[in-house]
Amino acid sequence: MRRVLYLVYISLLVSLPLRLLAIDLENIVSSAVTAVKMTAEASKDISAAEEYYIGRGVAANVISRYPLVKNPSLTQYVNKVGLAVAAMSKAPVTYGGYHFGVISSTVENAYACPGGFIFITTGLLKKLKSEDELAMILGHEIAHVVNRDSVKSLQAAKWRNLGYFVVGEATSHIPISNANVSELVGVLKDTIMDVSRRVIDAGYSQSDEKKADLDGLNYAAAAGYSSQAAVDFFKRQIESGASYSSGPFSSHPSMKSRLQAVEKTIPKLASASISPERTSRFKSILALVR
Questions:
Q1: Integer CA distances (angstroms), 8 to 5, 11, 95, in order
Q2: Which partner from 121, 165, 222, 233 sits 20 to 30 angstroms from 273, CA to CA?
Q3: What is the pTM of this model?
Q4: Contact status, residue 101 vs residue 68, Cβ threshold 8 Å
Q5: What is the dihedral sign for C-alpha 178, 97, 73, 110?
Q6: Residue ranges per domain, the chain?
């Protein structure tokens, strides 16, 4: 039954127009919103709605540092792969939905912002050899979102003065004024900057990274992608001597330990082989990356 529902879900994704699959991330702060009152307690966890709006601010910081690649075909493709993997995660639906973007940078990296905003750099895309490897990378970032790695230590006590600015886009189409946008950004500024530093610069703990590797591998395999792709990717990184002394990847476990963990997990997964058709499709899309 789960597989049938999944196939129905994917068929719907394929039929969606590009404008629904690819969010205009450059307009990430300006939107139709409504002000709703929030009662916050010091011990209260950050809600899904609050997490989503923090994520929007973090995503805006990401694309202010790395320009968003404006290629509809590339963006649509990455969204389709990402949404297929996200559909098999423990959180297939988030408050504001998953949104995937490609950013221009020679840095080989990917970023997961709270609430489901995920970016992959052109530098990392060029290192991949198949759609299955892309699914594995996106699965890792989806796992960070599902596990709430960037916000799980934050509590409402740190920003309970948010007051009336828990925003309900889903129920309103009233354009917020520029003055109110500025006020909202000001209220959330400290929290957004703290989370942005973790997402873009500091990275996560090694235990968080290892869990994201294995969870993401499970999600991609459940979506029909080959787990062998992760092995291939890590082996190439090891052979190339890839190492990261700074940035998010510096907190990751070593490539060798990641490879060992993946190889230990693969026998437990129902994994497909790497599809020549998917690989051919990936190479065609990769030609769009500059």
A1: 5, 5, 21
A2: 121
A3: 0.74
A4: yes
A5: positive
A6: 2-286
